[in-house]
Amino acid sequence: MGRKPIHQNIKPSFFKVLLGGFEKQLSIPPEFIKHVNDKLPGNLYLRSPNGTWWWVKMKKIKDGWFFRKGWNHFVTYHSLKVGEFLVFYYKGNSKFSVTIYDRSACEKEPPLAKKKRNGHEEVESNSTHVTKKAVEPGESSVSKKKRIRAHKIEMNGEFEAVCLLKTERPHFTQIMRTHNIFQITVPRAFGVK
């Protein structure tokens, strides 16, 4: 990515082919660091292809910058292997969207997020995976008004994360409600395309 993008509204990106030693840290290209200047803080968030967010600490070692703490959990969760190819799209505000390609040069199928248990999304039991606590109906320590507000904030954050998704494949976005767990209405405009 040695050059600045032609259009200023294009977000910077870089790619990495996974070679030996990537399990505990991953180097960030120096040209990418120069391009974003001092816009990157030490703490970053990586968005997986399945929509989960991962906290990763960026650290300077000698003359280079690396994804360090938390990176190993991202690697384990996605079963990353030597020869796979990752594209990091910087979305601003310390957030990257990551696309993963396997050795066949096709997009790798992401792990499915596991079901919620005890109000928490159970995907990976480590402190670097960013989880959101769902509001339990019987909680008495928090007022109903605060619970509703917390639920709206959580939904807005999730919806915002979905809106960041850019794909060439046809898709539509819909917020799931309890009444459409077993049935969903496909928008007419989507069906026509």
From TrEMBL:
It is found in: Nucleus. InterPro entries: B3_DNA-bd, DNA-bd_pseudobarrel_sf, Plant_B3_domain. GO terms for cellular component: nucleus. Keywords: DNA-binding, Nucleus, Transcription, Transcription regulation. Residues 11-104 form the TF-B3 domain. CDD domains: B3_DNA (cd10017). Residues 111-143 are annotated as: Disordered. One of its GO terms (molecular function) is DNA binding. PANTHER family: B3 DOMAIN-CONTAINING, B3 DOMAIN-CONTAINING PROTEIN OS01G0723500-LIKE ISOFORM X1. This is TF-B3 domain-containing protein. It comes from Protea cynaroides.
